[in-house]
Design brief:
The chain is of the alpha/beta class. It has three domains: about 15-100 and about 175-220, Nucleotidyltransferase, domain 5; about 100-165, no CATH class; about 235-280, no CATH class. It is about 50% helix and about 10% strand. The chain contains twelve helices and five strands. It has helices at about 55-65, 80-90, 100-110, 120-135, 140-150, 165, 175-190, 195-225, 235-240, 245-260, 270-275, 280, and strands at about 15-20, 30-35, 40-50, 75-80, 95-100. A five-stranded mixed sheet has the order 3-2-1-4-5, sandwiched between helices. α1 (about 55-65) packs across α2 and α4 runs antiparallel to α5 (about 140-150). The chain starts with 14 loop residues before the first strand and ends with a helix. About 25% of the residues are buried. This is MULE transposase domain-containing protein.
Length: about 280
């Protein structure tokens, strides 16, 4: 897909979010959310589903793919709904499907706490789990995972761990809360769940126009407001039309370079944000 969050060459986004709820017709609403270069959400597609099965999701995602002119997002984030996950794999075979870390942690809490006799033991378990889940490099991940599996005599499901989120261009989005927030906002436009499809469609269009106008205003403001970040990235910023959000993100690792507080080599910032990390900046 062309363009991504820090840059303004396109408002299309390489990472998308999926969420669904029901209405009075007992049909699920699948809404697909994108993220703009300003780190704000926008609505990409709405689909009413008669059934939440793999076939229905494949049909909905196929329409979405056609809208993208058969290009594939680099990342789609969703909850662990197997029908949706299988459909994503079918329609977008090269897209990474990341799972919401909040739901993973909720699952761990619900299924593991009962196996511990006291709170202190469980707190230690969760601390060890977090060390694995929030590993910032593959080396650290393999080390902490090995210790975790040895200590608790269990095999962790690698596909559920946040390390995967460190290895792909997801712009710091690790949960589906953005989609849930956008869905809640959408409900404020719908107001009631008893409307007909024509009325609902009109309200969807109103929500889309509102988000589009918000982005247009932000683009206009960016042209008149000068953001000064003292970084040695003049050439990088010249090659791309940078948003203020991206410039502020770049300034964080640059501050580490100036203060000499860089951590040992870890390229996850560059991988997940598509922006130079502190070690890269050191050689610019």
């Amino acid at each position: 897909m062309v363009g991504y969050l820090p840059y303004l060459k396109s408002l299309k986004k390489k990472e998308l979010f999926m969420s669904s709820q029901t209405n009075k017709y007992n049909m699920s609403l699948l809404d697909i959310i994108g993220v703009s270069c300003f780190n704000t959400s926008f609505y990409f597609e709405f689909v009413f589903l008669e059934r939440k099965d793999e076939y229905s999701y494949i049909l909905a995602l196929s329409v979405f793919k056609k809208t993208l002119e058969n290009r594939e997002p680099s990342v789609i984030m969703s909850d662990r709904e197997l029908s949706l996950m299988n459909a994503i794999k079918t329609v977008f075979p090269n897209t990474i499907n990341l799972l919401c870390i909040w739901h993973i942690e909720k699952n761990v809490l619900a299924n593991c706490k009962k196996h511990f006799t006291n709170t202190d033991e469980f707190d230690i378990f969760m601390s060890n789990w977090n060390n694995v889940a929030y590993s910032t490099t593959s080396t650290i991940f393999e080390s902490t995972l090995g210790e975790f599996e040895l200590l608790y005599q269990t095999r962790a499901n690698k596909s559920l761990l946040v390390l995967g989120k460190k290895n792909y261009l997801h712009f710091g989005n690790r949960s589906s809360s953005r989609a849930e927030g956008a869905h809640s906002k959408l409900k404020s436009y719908l107001q009631v769940s008893t409307g007909g499809f024509q009325g609902i469609t009109e309200k969807f269009c109103l929500a889309i126009r509102h988000k589009f106008n918000e982005i247009k205003v932000k683009l206009a403001n960016k042209k008149v407001k000068v953001l000064r970040c003292d970084t040695p990235l003049e050439q990088f910023c010249t090659d791309y039309i940078m948003s203020h959000f991206a410039l502020k993100k770049i300034y964080i690792p640059y501050e580490k370079v100036k203060k000499g507080t860089m951590a040992p080599w870890a390229d996850h910032f560059m991988v997940i944000m598509g922006l130079p990390c502190a070690h890269k900046m050191q050689h610019l």
